[in-house]
Amino acid sequence: MDMTNATVELGNPRRTDLEPVRIEALADKDSVHLCITPAIRDALELETIEGKSVVLADGTRPTVDYVGPIELRYGGRIGFAGALVVGDQPLLGVVPMEDMDLVVVPKTQQVIPNPENPGPGGSFALSPLPVHGA
Length: 134
Prior knowledge:
- By secondary structure, the chain is mostly beta strands.
- The protein has helices at 38-44, 94-99, and strands at 3-11, 21-28, 34-36, 47-53, 63-74, 77-85, 91-92, 102-105, 110-113.
- It is globular, with a radius of gyration of 16 Å.
């Protein structure tokens, strides 16, 4: 099973006067984006950036609001993302989990900070391009 729940704190980094929102999100390694409900968008006063066409589990392809930026906090880690406004269950997809270097442990059905990268977490980045003629 590649899905479990995680309690994530969401905030609007452009509106630090607003209280963060704690959500119970379905953490799904087979989904890509952070998905939030319209009520979460409204509570955080998030701006719509554009509409995005998405494929839902039932095969439909609606265009939904893509909002952000959103600050995410979980397990001592922090990340930033945009979110799709869709459904009635928040969803934590692989993009924000990778950004915060979180892993899903199927055996315990827990989302945890990657134990191979203690502290603020790690990431992969391309190495700088070689300088020609140097």
